[in-house]
Fold this sequence. Notes:
By secondary structure, the chain is of the alpha/beta class. The chain is built from 11 helices and 13 strands. The chain has a 9-stranded mixed β-sheet with strand order 5-4-1-8-9-10-11-12-13, sandwiched between helices. A 4-stranded mixed β-sheet has the order 3-2-6-7. The protein is globular.
Amino acid sequence: MKDIITIGDAMITFDPTTNGPLRNVHSFERKAGGAEFNFAIGCARLGLDTGWISRLGKDEFGKFIRNFARGEGIDVSAVKLVDGYPTSLNFKEIREDGSGSTFYYRADSPTKTLTEQTLDVDAIRQTKILHITGVFAAIDPEKNLRLLKRAVTIAKDHGALVSFDPNIRLKLWGREKARQSLSQLLPYVDIILTGVEEAELLFGVSQPDQIVTACERYGISTVAIKQGEKGAFGYMGGISMTMPPRLPKKVVDTVGAGDGFDAGFIYGVLQGWSLDRTLNFANTIGSMVVSVYGDNEGLPELDEVHIQLGEKEYVER
């Protein structure tokens, strides 16, 4: 029985060696990224038994990503390398304040070969939580929405919880298409991990209490709203609260912070923690991620989070 399984794409991420507009950047460093991929790494580093379902190109980039995931302790038995589809790419643009943009080259994603018929049903039957995001849905809206519906139905039928991060990428699809498609998944969701703008797109409201009310109409019992430098709002077990942020000394790269928050929140849910401890833990991971360059380089191991929280002593030498 896995603690967590996720379904989604992974990409080679080319990170610029200098900050500023990409037209002025002349060299890049090859790394790996992707929302579900980062989430899986975050969970594995916290010690959760983690599985990942995906497809990668049968090329050197695909082999690199699969080996990377395996090295992090992620079960990649449901990750297949396929011919005829190059592993997806993205190029990051990073500004001096740590903000940035992403340019995707994933239209012919290998995950197009991941269908309802090829889905690893046994893996989904044997997990405590299935985590899905709107990124995977956006890559091939019609096919992937059908696949995700099948996946969440299997998960629910076998007693698993479903967690969902809308993670809306408007460079991949339009607002209305995203709203119409992702709304179809909401009745299956137990835990939603969202930003304010994403919630407003899905529900038409932006205040935390309004978002909770909208979620409850779909039967969503646990809500986490990521508010960046303002912290996070949570609702669980009838209790709601706002948790102040844990601000890093310096923000150098914001990519992956939301995925780290998601991993931390899910970890708290699996441990049966209270809402305040879960939110604080997730906030702490988010702050650790933004202080390190890269999509997943800053995702911490469990001991590192406890040290950051002052719950464990750090011995330097």
